[in-house]
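Continuing the batch. This is chain 6 of the set; chains 1 through 5 are on the previous pages. Same settings as before, nothing changed between runs. Recording input and output for traceability.
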Amino acid sequence: MKHDDILRRARAVGGERPMSHFEITSLAKNNFRVVTVNIYNPYVKDEEVRAFLGRYMDNVSSARHLKDSLGFWNGRRGFQALLREDPKGHGGYLHPPAMFSLGPPFCRRCMAYGHIFASCSTRKCRFCGSEEHEARDCDKPKACHGCGSSAHLWRGCPARQRSYALKTGYRRRWGVFCLGTQPPDFFSKPAAALGRGGVWG
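Output for chain 6:
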């Protein structure tokens, strides 16, 4: 940028007269940035994100919830802040990481905190809880996530709340088929037998 070039030349001759009588200070804020953070968990508080960004930036503003073209918040938050100077950083500034996670590391294999799946040394099956084999080698029947029974899965659990459409026996309409029904054979029926515009009615 032109401003950076002029500032560099002024500082190069800063020890010589008449510039040695002046203190050179930039009035431009080259380190001002608007940072957009896309958070997939809507329950993460703005203060937690601000505290994280405060490790890399100064004067972090309060969050602004960014909305899409329809006016719905899509999980993105905007922050205004000043980057800290870092001679080793990109452009001479310290930047926050492009991707980060808040909270302690969590392992999906052994369901414990403190490490992640890639560094987990524990062998534990997530279906039966055995430490003798992993989930891909488990030969025991899967259990229902709702009641724990091995006689059925969650989709067939009697304790599961059914939707209104399933309770009323709603089967198919406008090409949408429920589980347990056979889709129609469009080629075995004449075009007049097909409903509105060739869609099974």
